[in-house]
Design brief:
It is a single chain. By secondary structure, the chain is of the alpha+beta class. 19% of the residues lie in helices and 36% in strands. It has three helices and eight strands; from the N terminus they run αβαβαββββββ. A four-stranded antiparallel beta sheet has the order 1-2-6-3. A two-stranded antiparallel sheet has the order 4-5. Strand 7 and strand 8 form a beta hairpin.
């Protein structure tokens, strides 16, 4: 699956907006997506470093219109925690020399709130 197929839409509620201050973003995702696929999709789409992914399966609610009764569809929600203070990755290369990783990460997802 491509990242665009995995991340369907952001979930914007009061609770999810409060969690943005802690670096937690909430998305509606594909029901068949795994946590690793969700993390890779968020990193690729928004250029941020993902620390943790929590997922929930949300059951649809029963609805009725007049005499007819139905049910809304089930969906999957992912709460993605990003690194709000990204730093260069350091590792040891050949000969024991320290090498810095040159990946540039953002510290927030600006497209989430439409700003």
């Amino acid at each position: 699956m491509t990242p665009e197929e995995i991340i369907i839409a952001p979930v914007v509620t009061e609770k999810s907006n409060d969690a943005v201050q802690e670096g937690k973003y909430t998305f509606k995702v594909n029901k068949n997506a795994t946590k690793i696929e969700i993390a890779n999709a968020v990193e690729k789409l928004f250029e941020v470093k993902v620390l943790k992914v929590n997922t929930l399966n949300i059951n649809g609610k029963k609805k009725r219109v007049g005499y007819h009764q139905g049910k809304t569809s089930d969906w999957k929600k992912a709460i993605v925690t990003i690194d709000t203070n990204p730093s260069d990755a350091k590792y040891l290369g050949k000969g024991g020399k320290e090498i810095k990783g040159s990946k540039k990460y953002k510290d927030s997802i600006s497209e989430f709130t439409g700003v």
